[in-house]
Automatic annotation (TrEMBL):
<keyword id="KW-0325">Glycoprotein</keyword>
<protein>
    <submittedName>
        <fullName>Receptor-like protein 51</fullName>
    </submittedName>
</protein>
<dbReference type="InterPro" id="IPR001611">
    <property type="entry name" value="Leu-rich_rpt"/>
</dbReference>
<dbReference type="InterPro" id="IPR053038">
    <property type="entry name" value="RLP_Defense"/>
</dbReference>
<keyword id="KW-0677">Repeat</keyword>
<keyword id="KW-1133">Transmembrane helix</keyword>
<feature type="compositionally biased region" description="Acidic residues">
    <location>
        <begin position="365"/>
        <end position="380"/>
    </location>
</feature>
<dbReference type="InterPro" id="IPR032675">
    <property type="entry name" value="LRR_dom_sf"/>
</dbReference>
<dbReference type="Pfam" id="PF13855">
    <property type="entry name" value="LRR_8"/>
</dbReference>
<keyword id="KW-0433">Leucine-rich repeat</keyword>
<feature type="region of interest" description="Disordered">
    <location>
        <begin position="354"/>
        <end position="388"/>
    </location>
</feature>
<keyword id="KW-0732">Signal</keyword>
<keyword id="KW-0472">Membrane</keyword>
<feature type="region of interest" description="Disordered">
    <location>
        <begin position="28"/>
        <end position="53"/>
    </location>
</feature>
<dbReference type="Pfam" id="PF00560">
    <property type="entry name" value="LRR_1"/>
</dbReference>
<dbReference type="GO" id="GO:0016020">
    <property type="term" value="C:membrane"/>
</dbReference>
<feature type="transmembrane region" description="Helical">
    <location>
        <begin position="393"/>
        <end position="415"/>
    </location>
</feature>
Length: 419
């Protein structure tokens, strides 16, 4: 093993260690010493002990620098690893079964930006893990591989391609889950029909999930955060969505959902973040939204809502983010809202219909800005005038370039003809 260890393959190794004796002492004396791994050496509880030599060798085999005793910075005599995070590793780091077997005491294992090849975890490690995280790591995972981590309470997989027939195969056996993130994984299939009732956090955003939102999902009464954005979900939002009475964050943005905003949403008093943008939702925007006292983020843009916006300036200015643009039949009451707020929808006539065609998509260039409204008078006019400019310039440029290309081609042809 000649390679110089200085270009460290792992820039972060976070180790937290289990004091085996302390853990055993804390357990009720009657409870049988369960399947917890025995340290190979038996030292008296008082003598300072270092890391299990087998685990030390495992870390070394993973190129984790161990010249410094990972336990020495602590006054406690640590014995076994509980938690390991590998971050920013280069792709020549390889997991080995032997190393992972030695590390089976881990309850938490994280890979952050570690594009190495996954291997089948030894059964003991799979059973002990409570927290598993893979972000931009492990090249490619399968649903079957993930489904073996049955005792997880927290699963986070983000920016890793996961091939599976759907989330069901991954989640159905994990009976203790509290928190699930499977995001940016290109996961296909339908949402599961059965859920474990203790879920508090569910993020399945930015995948290729299709079909409807099952009613069973709305029975997760402990759920605080639900993000299903950027999938291909269709049909209507279940009428029972309001049964998620603890929910604080709800994002169903960028799907193909249709129909109205369900009335039951009024029964979600804790809601602070509501994003229903970029769907095909229709009907009017319900009045009860203005009574949601905790709301800070409201995005209803890019739908097919119609009618008069039921909000006054006090309500809108209280929000950190407010977007309603790109709803061509939606308008605002000028008597109530004046013309100061940039809402990107038209004012209403006296019948509650949009007065002028709403601002075209010209605003999309600076749509990323969170500031969807401000107090600048008549800025809309200036902006509109501006927006014609760039596209004309671009067009002019394009014509100019194509003329030059044409001219060059013409000259080449001419030169050839003249030979
Ligand atoms: C990993 O690298 C990124 C950027 O290269 C850096 O911002 C981050 O702090 C690193 N993470 C760790 C844990 O070293
Ligand atoms: C982990 O889950 C298995 C079933 O998959 C179970 O038999 C075992 O008791 C669990 N282990 C712990 C430590 O909870
Ligand atoms: C998902 O698929 C898209 C398009 O096929 C691809 O660009 C992207 O890298 C994939 N994401 C992952 C995490 O593999
Ligand atoms: C849900 O959590 C409660 C307490 O947090 C626990 O008693 C119960 O066993 C859990 N249920 C499941 C299915 O994990
Ligand atoms: C939902 O997920 C999307 C994409 O992954 C992300 O941009 C958005 O911030 C998330 N919403 C919330 C409320 O966290
Ligand atoms: C809600 O979403 C925001 C933004 O993504 C996040 O900071 C916050 O922690 C989320 N709340 C819960 C309860 O998950
Ligand atoms: C909303 O759209 C559905 C079809 O997606 C249609 O059946 C319904 O009549 C529409 N409702 C309104 C109020 O436009
Ligand atoms: C604005 O609407 C809120 C309800 O969202 C209401 O309580 C408040 O009195 C209204 N303010 C004005 C100035 O009309
Ligand atoms: C606009 O608001 C005023 C004052 O509240 C009201 O009299 C009028 O009917 C509203 N117009 C529409 C179209 O809703």
């Amino acid at each position: 093993m000649a390679p110089d260890p200085s270009p460290l393959l792992l820039f972060l190794v976070h180790l937290s260690l289990l004091l085996h004796h302390a853990a055993a002492a804390a357990a009720p004396p009657t409870s049988a010493p369960t399947s917890a791994p025995k340290p190979p050496t038996h030292s008296s509880p008082n003598s300072p002990s270092t890391l299990d030599p087998k685990q030390l060798r495992a870390l070394q085999s993973l190129n984790i620098p161990t010249s410094k005793d990972p336990c020495s910075h602590s006054s406690s005599p640590f014995r076994h690893l509980l938690s390991l995070t590998l971050a920013n590793c280069s792709d020549d780091v390889a997991l080995s079964l032997t190393a992972l077997k030695s590390l089976s005491t881990l309850t938490s294992l994280s890979f952050l930006n570690c594009p190495i090849s996954p291997i089948k975890f030894p059964a003991e490690l799979a059973a002990n893990l409570r927290t598993f995280t893979a972000v931009s790591s492990l090249n490619k995972l399968t649903g079957v591989w993930l489904s073996r981590l049955q005792n997880l309470t927290s699963l986070t997989v983000s920016r890793v391609a996961v091939s599976a027939s759907g989330p069901t195969i991954i989640l159905s056996g994990m009976k203790s889950l509290h928190s699930v993130t499977l995001s940016h994984t290109n996961l296909t299939g339908n949402l599961p029909k059965h859920w474990h009732s203790n879920l508090t956090f569910l993020d399945l955003s930015t995948n290729q999930l299709k079909g409807e939102i099952p009613i069973s999902l709305t029975r997760l009464e402990n759920l605080l955060h639900l993000n299903l954005s950027s999938n291909s979900l269709s049909e209507t939002i279940p009428d029972t969505i309001g049964d998620l009475s603890s929910l604080q964050n709800l994002s169903l943005a960028s799907n193909s959902l249709s129909g109205p905003i369900p009335e039951s949403l009024a029964a979600m008093p804790a809601l602070t973040h509501l994003d229903l943008s970029s769907n095909q939702l229709n009907g009017t925007i319900p009045n009860f939204i203005r009574d949601m006292k905790r709301l800070k983020f409201l995005n209803l843009a890019g739908n097919a809502f119609h009618g008069v916006l039921p909000f006054n300036a006090t309500f809108i200015e209280r929000l950190e983010v407010f977007k309603v643009g790109e709803n061509s039949n939606l308008c605002y009451n000028r008597t109530v809202l004046g013309s100061k707020l940039k809402l990107r929808i038209a004012a209403c006539d006296k019948h509650g219909l949009p007065l002028s065609p709403p601002p075209a998509k010209d605003a999309s260039a600076d749509d990323s800005s969170d500031e969807d409204y401000d107090d600048g008078d008549d800025e809309n006019v200036g902006e509109k005038k501006h927006s014609g400019g760039p596209s004309k310039v671009v067009l002019g440029f394009a014509i100019g370039i194509s003329s030059i290309v044409f001219l060059i081609v013409f000259l080449i042809l001419l030169a050839k003809c003249c030979k």
